[in-house]
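[retry 2/3] High affinity Mn2+ porin: previous attempt timed out, resubmitting with same input.
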Amino acid sequence: MTEERKQRCRTCDTAFAAPARRGLRGSEAGFSKSYIVAVSRMSIRPASSVRARSQIRIPALPQVAALLLTPAITAPAVAADLAAPRPAAEVAAYTDWSGGYIGLEGSAGGSYGAYTFGPTTIGGRPVPAFKSGDSTGRSDQGRNATTAVGGLFGGWTWQTGPWVYGVEASLDAANLKRPVPSTIAGFGYADVDPAFNIVRAKTDLYGTVRARLGYSFERYLIYGAFGLAGANARFLATYPDLDTGGQATAQRELGYLGFTLGAGVQYAVSDHLALGIDYRYIDLGGSRRFPLGAVPGDQGGPVSTRASFTSNQMFLRLMWFPDGLRVPPDPDETAPHDPDNGDTGRFSLHGQTTLIAQGVPGFRSPYEGAQSLIPHQARQTTTATIFLGFKLSDTTELYYNPEFSQGFGLSRTLGVAGFVNGEAQKAGAPFPKLRSNRYYVKQTINLGGETVEVPDGPNQVATRYDAERITLIAGKFALGDFFDGNIYAHDPRVDFFNWSLWGSSAWDFPANLPGFTQGVYAEYNRPEFAIRAAYTQVPKEPSSDVLDPRVFRRAGLNAEFEQRYVLPGLEQPGKLRFGFFSNVGVSANNREVVTLTQLGAFDDINDAAAATRRPRRKTGGYINLEQALTPELGLFARASLNDGRTENISFTDIDQSFSGGLSLKGKAWDRPDDTIGIGAAMNGLSPSHRAAFAAGFYGLLIGDGRLNYGTERALETYYALNLTKFVTLTFDYQFINNPGYNRDRGPAHFFASRLHADF
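[retry 2/3] High affinity Mn2+ porin: success.
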């Protein structure tokens, strides 16, 4: 599967069959082809309107064994020859990774580290332990710094069957800098304004020696690793003399040796090259006690301390195997559990991983607020998802999706209302964070008509549905799994990055920080249209990770009508979706908080918002167009609007949005699986919402402390290079005018690359 999109039959849409992830992600599902079976079940014909894409599936261990043990059958050379068929030579279903390798690895904004100091004494007097922070907290002095780590590695691998084991060494340079603010207790500078950096800790070299143990299947290797890690550290201390105006300084260099644990995945692009993603947790332990200068003054004295260090690192890797790899042939398009190969199966197992590295150079920034976009930085995000499915009966299915995510968007996913990285979460973490993002049961009530054969795919067990049917779902999911779909712009893992291009961004859909909610969903489907609705929980307050359990008083109602048609003249399929939402959640009224602040009831408008939040209703809607112009060229367009009276509670700070663009496959230049996309978006705020931000309000994503209002406008173009059926490498550019609706800031240019693999 080269892309994780919904591919639907024009005459019998299966919009829910392979749900698409929405919220802060985009779609995570799709299937390659659908079949319409005549009532007699005597023949199967491909639906001509399907926009087919190849699928990649993980064979379960029994299936791998079956592939190894099942002989190929050779037809007789002569019709009259009744001799038994001869088995062909067995072909391994996995890559042989044996031998040596070397490679390059790097991380731009995807590595985090923190120093912890203590026990510490000043003139023999103990002071509380303190730490530098890992650059992810809002109070961290180094939160806007970009940490780059990269270098060389090499190793040797042995293999027994699909099991792989080996050793590896790496050496990486880094620019890790972590300051300690003067606000810490015990040094006598806590009340000094403005604060300054009292200690700066730096690391510029890492080394590791690790053992690796893994499992090989198809072109993939999944592995765990453990071993030794070492690094240097340099501590620079500055102690001002508040009485004389002078200052004392000190410097100390140390070496550390500790341990590392990690895991990774790599994919054989060719017989000699592989791409991979490698995660490492490094714990270098604590140092011996060392002196670090002296604090001047009567309450000062010599400083003595110990320092410990931990780090989380995520690398993108390029590997070269000089002796070559033995790579199996790509699996057939008809994969296990496709209805058309006679094996419908009860289980489904798929996966994906996506790494995005994105940077922004300098731009005009005369002032900054707590939620402003910061120039001159780079950040990296990584996700890995498993899609598990089980068919309890012909009409009842269970699904579960655990997911790891690591990293943050630029400026900690703040500063732009139509944010520039669809994989960036407001619930980011410096380490791989495991969440159970989906678990739900799906019940299908078949009502007759032609039968739709649905192949095995992400969040879809191979099964058969009637063209006319009712689908009921209960559990945890993203509303974008079922609403606001668009095959040209809905999945930041394979198409557009910008939130306002892959979604109707004025739709304030109920969700926790990663973009999921709990509730019930129902759909009535016919070949020519579908009607769907959901009733779900809302967050307990704006931008909260906790969902409100009072579903009969505070909840979200979302509905959508989808019309399918063939455009006259072009004879190409299209879909038009009309969405409506009405959500009741705890929020503040924009006009009320502005008035209270202007009257002097509150000094800070954010205090006014916190004090006046109560259950309020927000309503709105969207229109979504998906239109094929040719088999290779598609058009998309969206318009969305909400009432703008209250602060948004879940998605982003947008009250009106218009977007559209084109998506073109690469058939014309002999790259039929490549995609080039271009799109534009314009976002706006209601008058009362503008007034709130001008008074210093901080919303879900934006807040410069003041506002010279202008519509936020975005232009994005990308090229998705399909390296193999399994792996896609994308290069992306975005231009944002008036980021955060502020004419005083920007314009800003964003550059990104994305590595996406399906399992």
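[retry 2/3] High affinity Mn2+ porin: Residues 606 and 697 are 6 Å apart (CA to CA).
[retry 2/3] clearing retry counter.
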